Amino acid sequence: MNSAVLGPGTKMRQMASIGFTARVAFMCLIFPFSFVEQTAAQNQFGTSKEIISRCKNVFTKPPAHTPSQVAVDGPLLGNGYCAAVLAGNPDSLCFYLARNDFWRLKSGYNESFPAVLGKLQISIPALQHGTYYVEQHLYDAITVGEFTKGDTAVSLQSWMADTHDWLVIEMVNKGKANIKASIMLQPPQSDQFAFHPPLENKFADTIITGNNGKGLQYMQRGFEKDVDIKSYAAVACRILGKNSNDFMIVPGEKITILCAFASSFKNTDCLGTAKQQAEKAGVQSIAKARNDHEKWWQRFWNESWVRIGDSVIENQYYKSQYTMASCSRDPKFPPGIFGSWVTQEMPAWNGDYHLNYNYSAPFYGLYSSNHLQQAQPYEAPVLDFMLRGKYYSQKITNISDGVLYPVGIGPLGIETTRKNDLMLKYRSGYITSGEVEDEGLFFGQKSNAAYCATNLSTAFYRTWSQAFAQRVYPFIKSIAIFWQHYLKYENGRYIIENDAIHEGTIGTKNPILSLGLVPMVFQTAIDMSALLGMDKDLRSIWKEKMDHMASYSTQVRNGKTVFKYSEKGTDWWADNTLGIQHIYPAGRIGLASDTALLQIARNTIEVMQRWKDFNGSNSFFPASVRVGYNADTILARLREYCHHTYPNGFQLNNPHGIENCSTVPNTINEMLCMSNQNVLRVFGVWPKAQDASFANIRCEGAFLVSSVLKNGSVDYVKIVSEKGRKCLLQNPWEMHRVKVSSNKKGERFLVGGQIALNTLPGEKLLFEKSVKQ
Minimal CA–CA distance to 78: which of 370, 408, 259, 324? Predict the structure, then answer.
């Protein structure tokens, strides 16, 4: 949402019933450059546990904004397939339950959204008005709660298993008194509905609830009427060793509650599967699941790490990574605007995949952090929408084989903002204003598909995976073909007309965002096609157009020359960050750019000052790094940003959810190790007096880079070359001679401001300042 007009098969069915090892194997098949390939390279680093074990989320009072139609403020649990968020007072604790793949699937404006599943309520009357304290330990992803009142004290440990779709809750009586308690599994209740008819309506659903009389509760919710694709989700729960949902806990006793989840996209009989899982689970299977759960998180945290000597920023860095790991693993159902934690129906902006930045932004930092399993789900919705995108391209612009995407989509080809009766009756202004074209809500913007390409381009250049390129190239090619034909030639340059820089600014000429995105698409299409040996005839066409794109327009504001938002039309905007998004995420300006252009970019950062923007901080911070803005200022503003959060890491009073999970990790990674424009720069935009270290930041060229800055000097740089591409390292010791040690080529000495060398696949390189001159 980049204006105030409208802000934000078979293999799949198998995934819920298989364990961790099979899930990893499956991920390697569909995303072959996944985290498991990096294990050997990471064994040399043993400090991730030391660093991340210090990081935790602390809640000293019950959440005040859970449930909600927007971002929630409670403790977040999830395994990327199913999720829970804890809310409620000590005497009535509630786990609000959800699944990534439980959507109402109907193409139409305000008719499709991720749906709520229900909640598990734990009632402990003796704790009324009791104390509340919850910690989330990020390293092992365990949530621990302590609730007391007088002689009554309860400890609660909960975790969402990473090998099964299980929520496990362990309750211990730590007080002196017996405790009477009960659990109740419920379908969505009144607190999970907050409709505002006529635009927000409750749609017909089916609900099955029951209890087997032996302590097993179950429920299934589904949508089967007036939908394009039927969907169901189920959950079943029981207390191990108990035959009733009302129970007594004596001092020192522990009980275990298990909730098992399933869905129609993973199981033929999802309710039967959930019931069977809950009934079969026992002490030994849960203990094994706990062990596998902890191993999964150890692997995740060892994929990369940073240490920067700032506990505030570090904590936000890792809680952001925790959140993305908890909500993004399902390869066909990535998280929407609010992640997996959909607690009220309908979530704002339909909780969908908003394509004019919101959908892309949460994934920005995952690639450099080497968290590729979490990044992989991004591609499914944009690829699944290609057929409809081709329709719009042909129907609206008469460009065949191109793609044109509207603002809102969902999974499996669903279009969440398509013109329908609701829009005709209550949002007819979208239609009369021209923001709707044919049946699609575009707000005048032609850039949505190109925006979708940003993360695909990033994934490609940081992995150079041929399998990945084969999957996404048809989409990238279709975007390139669209712009190949949409651009107009004028006075020796290619221009963009009838676009919109902000939603509804129809008719913009040369909007700066599109001027950044289009060359990025062309270059990515050229490099992918070359790697795949395809479409050689198109490469020269794309390159010629890329090389002759119109330049960025400028203006003077506050006495400084800055970028103009468009050549004709909107020149500035009071909020948001579209004025710098050609820098990031489009990646068209960096430290190797022309010095005059760099100065204009820095001026624009200085004048805009969008460090805590409601929409665009996630692009503003990394853009400031890319152009070499003052490092101390960036860190100071980032620290302020980190203080402006709920305990779970979501930005305070900002409804947009997980898009802010990229801001801190992505910014820190860029400051520590920047790799755009084919140059590796360690600590390139970092205060030299501030010690820092990092391991396995994934860089362009498919390099994994590690380094240490201590006492103002770089100790070493370690690089693992996955694909054997040419490496160009900005000499961190300036013109000093560099010793390069290789596990495949031995030792050599190199000099120069930039160290260039060809690498071999699997080569490990160690760069050190030479003691010999």
Answer: 324
Q: What is the DSSP letter of 127?
A: G
First to last CA, the chain: 55
Specify burial of residue 190 (Cβ count, 10 A radius: 0-12, 13-18, 19+). Answer: exposed
| 11 pLDDT above the threshold of 50 | no
Token pair, residue 116, equals 């709520």
| 725-765 residue pLDDT tens | 999 999 999 989 999 999 999 999 999 999 999 999 999 99
What would the two tokens of residue 333 be?
Answer: 């159902």
Farthest-apart Cα atoms in the chain, separation: 85
Query: Which has more pLDDT, 329 or 10?
Result: 329
**DSSP secondary structure letters along 714-737:** EEEEEEEESS---EEEE-TTTTS-
DSSP helix/strand/coil, 751: coil
Q: Nearest CA to 719 among 670, 667, 771, 675?
A: 675
Rounded CA gap, 27 and 170, in Å? 31
DSSP annotation string for 303-370: T-EEE-S-HHHHHHHHHHHHHHHHH---SS---BTTBT---SBSPGGGG-EETTTTTTGGGHHHHHTT
CA angle 467, 379, 545 (to 5 degrees): 80
Report whether 236 contacts 266 (CB < 8 A): no
* 3-state SS, residue 154: strand
H helices within 510-616, ranges in order?
512-532, 536-547, 595-608
What confidence tens digit (pLDDT) does each residue in 344-384 have?
999 999 999 999 999 999 999 999 999 999 999 999 999 99
Q: How far apart are CA 505 and CA 5, in angstroms?
A: 10
Give the integer Cα–Cα distance in Å for 557 and 341: 42
